[in-house]
Amino acid sequence: MLYLKNIIEIGFGAGIFVNAFLFVPQIIQLLRVKDAKELSLFTFSGFCLIQVFVILHGFINQDYLLVVGYSVSLVMCGLVTGLIIFYRLQKKRKMAKSVKTRSRKLRSRKL
């Protein structure tokens, strides 16, 4: 039984850190395509909120492996969330600039 417990503990510890690095492909994809239209800001914000509560739970229960693992996960997920916000704001700015430019062209044609 002790052997099984050790295997579960090792799997749990490894799983915490694997969980954190599962966000890396998403970060790479976002940086490569520079567009977040396919991603849900609500979902990734929810992931971040859950991770904050898991970190707090780890502190309360003095489970520092959980705290460290989910802190790394929060950083990675937070980076995805930040990139989603950044690229969406960047897209809105480009669209606003495009509308402004078209408006100026139309006004200059009328004159």
Give structural notes:
This protein is mostly helical and 111 residues long. The chain has a single domain (18-110), classed as Monooxygenase (Up-down Bundle). Helices cover 87% and strands 0% of the residues. The chain has helices spanning 2-21, 24-33, 41-60, 64-110. Helix 3 runs antiparallel to helix 4. The chain is elongated. The mean pLDDT is 90.
Might you state the CATH topology name? Monooxygenase
Q: What's the Cα radius of gyration?
A: 22 Å
Biggest sheet descriptor = none
Q: Mean pLDDT across all residues, rounded?
A: 90
Query: In the CATH classification, which architecture applies?
Result: Up-down Bundle
Query: Helical content, roughly?
Result: over 70%
Q: What series of H and E elements makes up the topology? A: HHHH
Counting helices, strands and paired strands, the structural category is: mainly alpha
What's the overall geometry?
elongated
CATH class label: Mainly Alpha
Strand content: under 5%
Spans of at least 5 consecutive residues with low confidence: none
Short description:
The chain is mostly helical.
Architecture blueprint of SSEs:
Layout: H1 2-21, H2 24-33, H3 41-60, H4 64-110
Helix pairs in contact: 1-4, 2-4, 3-4
What attributes does this structure have?
elongated, 0% strand, 111 residues
